[in-house]
């Protein structure tokens, strides 16, 4: 455990730093400064240094951060180092199908290993190796595969029930695309992604 409580926004930014480091590592870069990291991520360099300082001292005087060393440490902090996380998906509509086909999840260490949908025409089929099951089998399949992460891409009216089923089967972290706030026990982490709200807010910034 860390001595200080880590802000959720810091954990979010660590993921941004990791993606940036992965990109520049493909350019065969070996070191990067906090100033350049901040510029590439759109984050103040002082904030970069503060975020990383929660977990130790990673920089070298006069050289900055070793790209490989910092990548490895961030993967360990985010529990991605040499590990693949199985993910359960609820909802195989347009959004769910797109998520199943998104290669970035696998590249980042995540595999959607099973999906759930009530449509009889979809049940039994597989998309990118993820077999589709009826919703009443959520507890059975999620528990059997020991899945800890779930994605909810169902209509709002069904999101709470689906979330409760996943949690009862052992899921402890959820990415929620449904336009509702979930009421779940303490200790369950939920990230809400409301695409329509994000879009509605954009015109405000247009001149």
Description:
- The chain is of the alpha/beta class.
- The chain folds into 2 domains: 8-77, Orthogonal Bundle (Arc Repressor Mutant, subunit A); 85-198, NAD(P)-binding Rossmann-like Domain (Rossmann fold, 3-Layer(aba) Sandwich), CATH 3.40.50.
- The protein contains 9 helices and 10 strands.
- It has helices at 8-25, 34-41, 45-53, 67-77, 94-101, 103-107, 138-144, 156-168, 195-201, and strands at 31-32, 59-60, 64-66, 85-90, 110-116, 126-127, 130-133, 149-152, 173-176, 189-192.
- The strands form 2 sheets. The protein has a 7-stranded mixed beta sheet. A 3-stranded antiparallel beta sheet has the order 1-3-2.
CATH fold name of the largest domain, please? Rossmann fold
CATH homologous superfamily assignment of the largest domain: NAD(P)-binding Rossmann-like Domain
Oligomer designation: single chain
Main beta-sheet strand count, sense and barrel state: 7 strands, mixed
What pattern of helices and strands is seen along the backbone? HEHHEEHEHHEEEHEHEEH
- Roughly what fraction of the amino acids lie in strands? 15-25%
Radius of gyration: 19 Å
Spatial shape: globular
Quickly give the CATH architecture of the largest domain: 3-Layer(aba) Sandwich
Mean pLDDT: 92
- Give the fraction of residues assigned to helices: 40-55%
Order of the strands making up the biggest sheet: 6-7-5-4-8-9-10
Report low-confidence residues grouped into runs of 5 or more. none
Structural class of the helices, strands and pairings? alpha/beta
- SS elements, strand count: 10
Total helical segments: 9
Head-to-tail CA distance between termini: 47 Å
Please indicate the count of domains.
2
CATH class of the largest domain: Alpha Beta
